[in-house]
Amino acid sequence: MDKNTLISEFQQVFSIEASQAVHTFFSPGRINLIGEHTDYNGGYVLPCAITYGTYGVVKRREDRRVRVYSKNFANIGMIEFSLDLLEFAAEDNWANYPKGMIRYIQERYGSLPVGFDMYVSGNLPNGAGLSSSASLEMLMGVILNEVYALGIDRIELVKLGQKVENDFIGVNSGIMDQFAVGMGKVNCGMFLDCQTLEYEYAPLDIGGHKIIIINSNKRRELADSKYNERRSECEHALRLLQRKLDIQSLGDLTEEEFEANQFLIDDDVLKRRAKHAVYENNRTKKALKSLKEGDLSTFGHLMNESHLSMRKDYEITGIELDTLVESAWAQPGTVGARMTGGGFGGCAIALVDANEVDSFITEVGEGYKQKIGYEADFYVASIGDGTKRI
Ligand code: GAF
Q1: Among 43, 99, 174, 177, which one is most buried in terms of CB atoms within 10 A?
Q2: 177 catalytic residue (yes or no)
Q3: Cβ(209)–Cβ(352) under 8 Å?
Q4: Which of 34, 36, 37, 169 for a ligand 1 pocket mutation test, highest count of atoms within 8 Å of Cβ?
């Protein structure tokens, strides 16, 4: 998106003269290569930031008002509130994400001296599971940090973003999305230990391959409540295992330890949820190794196993994502494919030979339309940096 266009849209919406200085920022979305529903289980994830995301233009005000406007929610119009009254309000819709971030930053780092006007415009498909909400949270966090020179460490901002999601919005998500959005690095995956927050960047040497993002366009109905349900199922399974094992999280278990102790979980559903978490965690470690060794074929195989586990044991895929992924597997040139993100709709990703991308899109697209009745959208992913000033 062109910076000058963004600035002139901002000036128009807020009736601000062209001569006044403004600040512009970009915050990405994310895909997760592997390591799904492992973050809140104390495990590993391997996401990357993408070059689609959310742009923000900001100007400080002289009073304590905040006015925010999103081009993507133009129907909602301008939303206005005070720095001194930052409560969740359903009618404020998307603005609750920045509002929550302002609130927690003020609670921890002191009151901001003045409010601001902010124009937001994004090119991430909404509700597609590419973390448009984490993108907004981190956008707001980085803007406040830089425009008000607060000097907050980036990882602290990531944690505050998660707190907004958990405590302000009410989704018990882990830390992966805010971390990927805030810490992204061009052409790199991020291997993160969600228990210790130790991480390393893993260069994505995928040779003549592309990562294709496929949006199922299936609305993520009830996704938040089902997400919270999966999380509590894992916590329940953990408590049952802890009656005998000295572990902090499911992420502490090897596959063998799980198999030897799974009898402690006397419920089939809980057992399958825990099995996914344990096996997915170990797959993520193997995936990092294969990436480092340039062994894409093993990497692709792990992606496929990850999807199967989410279909069978975690039960979060659904007919739309299964149709996309199974059709992706059948295409020549596909190295691996899986759903990405929280599930219950949203996106899949596929690692595809660059020469086969066009036919991949045609074949998978047509098959999907025929079976599901509406279209999927395809994007060729570029892996970019985390939230930054532009
Ligand atoms: C969502 C959550 F926000 C993440 O924390 C993570 O749990 C993911 O689903 C599943 O891996 O994106």
Answers
A1: 177
A2: yes
A3: yes
A4: 37
